[in-house]
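Continuing the series of single-chain predictions for the mutant panel. This is the parent chain; the variants come on the following pages.
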Amino acid sequence: MTSGHRSNGVDFDELFDPDVIGDGPAAAGFMRGGQPLRFAHIRYGAKGPDVGRRQGGVDVSNLWAARGTASYSLPINGQAYSSHNQSRTNSTGSAVATVTFILDSAGTYRVLGNTTGGGNNSGADLAAGSWLPAGASAGQYDVQFEAANVGVASISNGAPSFASCTATRSIAASVSVPAASLENQFAEVTLTIRLRRSNGAVSTTQIYAKVGAAGWY
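Parent structure:
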């Protein structure tokens, strides 16, 4: 199926990425099947060349992502985040290092690095941003988390299967060693975040949690 709108003989379906998320701007002056034409919002990709067709005096290439440029991953996709804990001399209990991804119903996410158990490194906010597109509601989305390459890490997964984003959801990777020991453990865990909209569109983000802990006599 084509859009029925062309630029230099090329149909718009070949020039712009499809609106798989469902928040693409509508061009009221351009119709497809009785509905205003929509393509992927330009914020998900890049602008292509002007097509010589205008909406409100602006070329529609400023509304939509050029074909092949749209990406629906969160901005942190592919990033690595670290947390390391070195216990102090004569410490007791466990030295723990954790990287946590948190997604909340207000539309924001955070990546936290945290250490507990008498370690030398304090917690930190490693990244933050918005996951919810403008005009959408958290109730339109579900989230699922997955951990891979776990190694010696422990995983706390708040959404192993798709769960509503109307509640705060998180996944954490941790490494723990006895504080009064010569143990040294490290893991680099791949954390996958999948967001599914009610229209069936799924975006996938992967980050790498590097967690390490060491004891000290």
